Amino acid sequence: MDMVRRLVADRPVVIFSRSTCYMSHSIKTLISSFGANPTVYELDQIPNGKQVEKALVQQLGCQPSVPAVFIGQEFVGGDKQVMSLQVKNELAPLLRQAGAIWI
């Protein structure tokens, strides 16, 4: 879990993704549409991707493991949780509070 904490430290939005995952792509597109510039770690393209994925599953209970979204260094959840925040109009305020967007 320390590895994941280091990767999300001091970043307003972090998305753990797989380059081939359509839901990860959708979540990245949604968050970017607000003007946020998320830090994205493609677990299938980084050297320690399997270790990070294992930590996400074991420590945070991510099922499936991607997308895993952190906003303001807090674990928000996966695609369902992010979409739920969007439907309830809670995603933009969360991004604003984290300093990911200003408007």
TrEMBL record:
Location (main, coarse): cytoplasm
Compartments, as annotated in UniProt: Cytoplasm
List keywords of the entry alphabetically.
Answer: Cytoplasm, Redox-active center
Q: Where is the Glutaredoxin domain?
A: 13-76
**InterPro entries assigned to the protein according to its UniProt record, in alphabetical order:** GlrX-like_pln_2, Glutaredoxin, Glutaredoxin_subgr, Thioredoxin-like_sf
Please give the superkingdom of this protein's source: Eukaryota
Report the Pfam families cross-referenced here.
Glutaredoxin (PF00462)
Instruction: List the record's Gene Ontology CC terms alphabetically.
Output: cytoplasm
NCBIfam families named among the record's database cross-references: GlrX-like_plant
Belongs to which family?
Belongs to the glutaredoxin family. CC-type subfamily.
Question: What name is this protein filed under?
Answer: Glutaredoxin domain-containing protein
Instruction: Please name the source species.
Output: Dovyalis caffra
